[in-house]
Every structure is written in structure tokens, then in C-alpha cells.
């Protein structure tokens, strides 16, 4: 009869939380890529794509709150946690810059910042995918690139 310790059970549940977190991060990144694609389609091809652009952000924005909860349920590096915390903040700034246009001293609408914040969100999301992947699936020394001198 095999007896498993509670530490093995905790380790297993931590691993699955991390795998779930990584899966959601990848899904968020794919949705963000699709959103960038649809804004390009709306601007350069057919304005009807704008509806898909808006629908996408309304559909996947809740994933940032789910990620925010998961990142504190399992041990993750500070960099992964920081990037995760930044994503709902950047998404909120995206909503603010597109929906609020208070008068500024230079008569510059806040919407001008929308693409810049979007680029920052895209960069943070992509970096989070890579950082999380390296943390969960570390490359072992013996799995490094093939040494071409040995044949």
C-alpha cells in the first residue's frame, strides 16, 4: 500500500494551479493578439470588425482578475506577480482612455494614450507568458541546445 504525504499533495496542487495560470496567461495573450488584429482589420479593411474588437475585450478582460487571484495562490517569482498585477491596471487605463475624455490643459484627448497603453499591455502580457513558461518549465542542463561538435 502506497502512502502519499501531504507535502506531495500540496506540491501537486501547486503545480496544477501554476499550469492553470499559465494556460490562462496564454489564452489572454492570444485574445490580445486577436484584438490587435481586429483593430487593424477595422481600420484598414472593414469598419464592421470594430464590433469584434469591442466584443473581444469585454469577453477576456475578466481573465486578468482570475490571474490576479491565482498568482497569489501559488508561489511565483516577484516579476511574474508584478506583471500580473499590472495587467488589470493597464486594462482599466485602456477603458478610461477610451471612455473618458476630460478636457486637459493642452486640449489633448486622453484617447491619444489608448494605443500606447495597449502596446504596454501587449508587452506585459507577452513577457508574462515567457516568464511563467520559464518558471514552470525550466530548461534542464542536459536539454540545452544540441552541441554540434558531438556527433
Would you mind describing this structure in some detail?
The chain has 151 residues and is mainly alpha-helical. It has one domain (14-138). The chain contains five helices and no strands. Helix 1 (6-44) runs antiparallel to helix 2 and helix 3 runs antiparallel to helix 4. The model is unreliable at 146-151 (pLDDT under 50).
How would you summarize the topology of this molecule?
Layout: H1 6-44, H2 49-60, H3 63-71, H4 78-99, H5 114-136
Find the count of extended strands (DSSP E, 2+ residues): 0
The oligomeric status of these chains comes to single chain
Distance between the termini: 46 Å
- What's the pLDDT, averaged over the residues? 85
Largest sheet: none
The tally of helices reads 5
- What is the general shape? elongated
What count of structural domains?
Answer: 1
Keywords:
151 residues; mainly alpha; elongated
Provide a compact summary of the structure.
With 151 residues, the chain is mainly alpha-helical.
